[in-house]
């Protein structure tokens, strides 16, 4: 807002098309620099968001892995609790077991075998998850570095496009008329 007000005040005091075009060029270059700074700022925020989401995903994955492992161990504990509860039954009342001295030992062995099979199947199908290895962390770091390089390349490309052209390709301006050692500026 203040930029426009200052621009119009200067424009009213300047005379001649050369001075006006010079001021208009300064205004245009200033606007382009501001837009370029906003684009770089947007890229930096994008990089920051990507890095934060990566850290968040890594922490969430780690938390899920711990929860999964605890659930597997809890399931194994449940099976063992059921087996322990069944040890409290009275085997003398089971048909075909009356008068057999090894009925309880046989029943206990069958329950232990079933428990081992259930635990093995649970670990086989549910499995314990492995922690994140250092190699996986390095791979993710390289991915992020590639992303940062891509954004840097885009910023450099944008800067090259918006670079000013060499002076010899431009049309003459009031600055070309002023001698190099002059301490004054002529406004016509």
Automatic annotation (TrEMBL):
User: InterPro entries recorded for this chain?
Assistant: CorA_TM1_TM2, MgTranspt_CorA/ZnTranspt_ZntB
Q: Which residues cross the membrane?
A: 70-90, 102-126
Its record classes its membrane topology as: Multi-pass membrane protein
> Where does the protein end up?
Membrane
What are the GO cellular component annotations? membrane
In terms of domain of life, where is this protein from? Eukaryota
Any one GO MF annotation of this record: metal ion transmembrane transporter activity
Q: What is its main location?
A: membrane
Sorted alphabetically, the keyword list is: Membrane, Transmembrane, Transmembrane helix
This protein is called Uncharacterized protein
Q: Which organism is it from?
A: Vitis vinifera (Grape)
